[in-house]
Amino acid sequence: MGRHTARRRHSDTPPSHWTHLLAGVPWITLVLVLTLLGAGWELVRPRTYTALATITATDERAADRASVRLTDPSLEGEVEAAVELDPELADDIRLEVRHRQSDPVVRVVAHAPDPRLAALAADTAAALEVQDGEGELEFTAAAEIPTQPTDRQDLRWLLLAGPALVAALWVEGAHRAWLRDRSGRLDAVAEAP
Fold first, then answer.
1. For the segment 38-60, what is each residue's pLDDT rounded down to a tens digit?
2. Of 67, 72, 101, 112, which has the fewest Cβ atoms less than 10 A away?
3. DSSP E strands: which ranges in the chain?
4. pTM, entire model
């Protein structure tokens, strides 16, 4: 009876070193769950479409003034109001300006979760600026409706899941072998007279 009690006491003793505790984590399950969560997020996250409209100014100074006005944070709200955007989609439009020094061409770039909305926002922002430009600006190129999102689904990161799963299998296999070896040694010690 004393022998069985000693065996149970030795085999129930948990490993105390942090590496053994860390190896005891169910790594295979963890890797699989993280892979499924990452793949699910990649498939359902909203896409962003980008459209570009072009304004041409009569001179560099007019282009500079237009590019400064186009960076005004209130412009996004004006565009949303002009296109009568649904309140649920408010704050979905982002605008930026691309303008090089000494270039009379100013490009208005709009980002939105819908391709038609992106093109409409770029055109509207450009039209609002031309309207306020007092004859110094001309709307030279309307935005085309984008066919592809700018942040396409990139599932290459799933390639990391394979090596991570192999590493998890190796760690769990090594941990099981260590537990089996440790259990065998403890049983041998408990059975010794």
1. 777 777 777 889 999 999 998 88
2. 101
3. 49-57, 94-98, 105-112, 137-141
4. 0.61
